[in-house]
Amino acid sequence: MQISVHINEADLGESLRSYLERRLRFALARFRDRVGLITVRLSAEGRGRARCRVIAEMLPFGRIIAEETRPDLFAAVDCATAMLSRRFGRQLDRERDSRLGRESVRLAA
Fold this sequence. Notes:
- There is one protein chain.
- By secondary structure, this protein is an alpha+beta fold.
- It has one domain: 2-Layer Sandwich (Double Stranded RNA Binding Domain), CATH 3.30.160.100.
- Helix content is 42%, strand content 34%.
- The chain is built from three helices and four strands, in the order E-H-E-E-E-H-H.
- It has a four-stranded mixed sheet with strand order 1-2-3-4.
- Strand 3 and strand 4 form a beta hairpin.
- The chain is elongated, with a radius of gyration of 16 Å.
């Protein structure tokens, strides 16, 4: 798992960078064989808002994107990494179901 962090217009220390890496490793630990490059963009927006955008490569299926805007940058990181973990799990479930030949409930009607 390679992590690339880009910080735009935010005065952030090394503690936030290590916090972000720790959260990503925790959220994606069970998918470690499927995770490629992870790109994170952190930015401070107007009116005290912070944005965290995470783009992760899911091998061999493509990219998964999670984006969150919160008043606190640490909260934005927490929400975005949790969302990314849920999306990874959902995508793997879809791929497993398609390999097993299961049909969607919507298609069965």
